[in-house]
Specification:
single chain; about 375 residues; 5-stranded antiparallel beta sheet; 16 strands; globular
């Protein structure tokens, strides 16, 4: 049994995990509750976010981190407050990554560890530590393992071990086969909201007409097969579209399920974005000020048997490059918080269609 593209059924999940109003199609945005932090951590962050000196905060975060190595908030606060002790800061973040339950702090952890990598005098130390964590994951949640693999890939690149980095990236379940439509105009962030053309276009995201022309930012545009997704799985739409900034674009891909199956979709994106399943918008968010990280939004998808379509609507501003990645994980989202081995890519029930956009023939 396998799946060759994506689609789903959607339940919105509230912050306390209860089921809210059902929508169509099926899918859900998962809100991971922030783990309770100690009074020390909360006081430390309150001080850290205030202007002025941060002297004295380090001891509070250090004590909290030692008492609870899995508290992401304590580790991130320690990393920010110890100023210049990059090795210790990186170690604190890695300990939290290995021990913590999945939480909203995961995105912050990704950014912090990646930023620290750039300042370490010997980045190979971080690469070695990440490799050891992956070889003995213990009780590390699956989603943390995936983040760890993303960080390990970046660490390998920083040590010029390119072949190893490519091999590591290939094991990550990024969707690398997309159809792209763009650029449309998003100057002054005004292109995202619906107008007559956008409304009509969004009713045809599933199985789009490859020959149909639309009015783009600088002339007529059509759907094109995107063939330049790099090994790390990130589509740099600012590089692919001209002009490179203040654009609106759509990505869509086909997923075919042999049977009804539940899986998880992990999104990382800058700018403003929305997710569509079979022409239905199921979620959206404004990330114009957000730095890219591979794990920013997690959705539960229940794919219907047969053909399904997953689409992303992405809008950039005049400051940050428009970056996007998506991973399709062949496990129920609840399992992401559990420990276990990451399923090998290409050997599971959920698989996106690598032939999307190519002419099809019937046997």
């Amino acid at each position: 049994m396998r799946i060759v593209v994506i689609l789903a059924t959607l339940f919105l999940i509230s912050a306390n995990g209860s089921q809210a109003e059902e929508k169509t199609p099926a899918g859900s945005f998962l809100f991971y509750e922030k783990s309770a932090s100690s009074a020390e951590v909360e006081a430390g962050w309150s001080a850290l976010l205030q202007p002025g000196s941060i002297s004295g905060i380090e001891s509070e975060f250090r004590s909290a981190h030692e008492q609870n190595p899995g508290d992401f908030a304590a580790a991130a606060g320690l990393a920010l407050s110890i100023q210049g002790k990059y090795r210790e800061a990186a170690n604190a973040n890695l300990v939290a990554l290995k021990n913590a339950a999945t939480s909203p702090w995961l995105e912050l952890q990704s950014s912090r560890v990646e930023a620290l990598r750039q300042y370490l005098e010997k980045p190979e130390v971080l690469a070695t530590a990440l490799k050891e964590m992956l070889s003995q994951p213990g009780r590390m949640p699956l989603i943390n393992q995936i983040l760890c693999r993303c960080l390990y890939y970046e660490a390998l690149l920083s040590t010029h071990r390119h072949e190893e980095a490519l091999s590591e990236a290939a094991a990550l379940p990024f969707i690398r086969d997309w159809l792209l439509l763009g650029p449309l105009d998003n100057r002054e962030k005004a292109g995202f909201d619906n107008n007559e053309q956008i409304s009509a276009l969004e009713q045809t995201l599933a199985n789009p007409d490859m020959d149909k022309e639309y009015g783009g930012r600088s002339g007529k545009i059509r759907w094109l097969r995107l063939q330049t997704i790099p090994a790390r799985g990130v589509a740099d739409l600012s590089a692919l579209l001209q002009p490179g900034m203040e654009n609106l674009a759509y990505l869509t891909t086909r997923i075919i399920a042999d049977e009804d199956t539940e899986a998880a979709l992990v999104i990382g994106a800058t700018g403003r974005a929305s997710v569509f399943l079979n022409n239905f918008e199921i979620a959206g968010w404004n990330g114009y000020q957000m730095r890219y990280a591979p794990i920013q939004r997690i959705f539960k998808l229940r794919f219907s048997k047969g053909e399904n379509w997953l689409s992303l609507k992405l809008a950039g501003d005049n400051i940050s490059p428009l970056l996007c990645s998506a991973m399709l994980l062949p496990v129920p989202p609840a399992d992401l918080e559990k420990s276990g081995e990451m399923p090998p890519t290409g050997k599971h029930q959920v698989k996106h269609d690598k032939n999307v956009g190519k002419p099809t023939t019937q046997a």
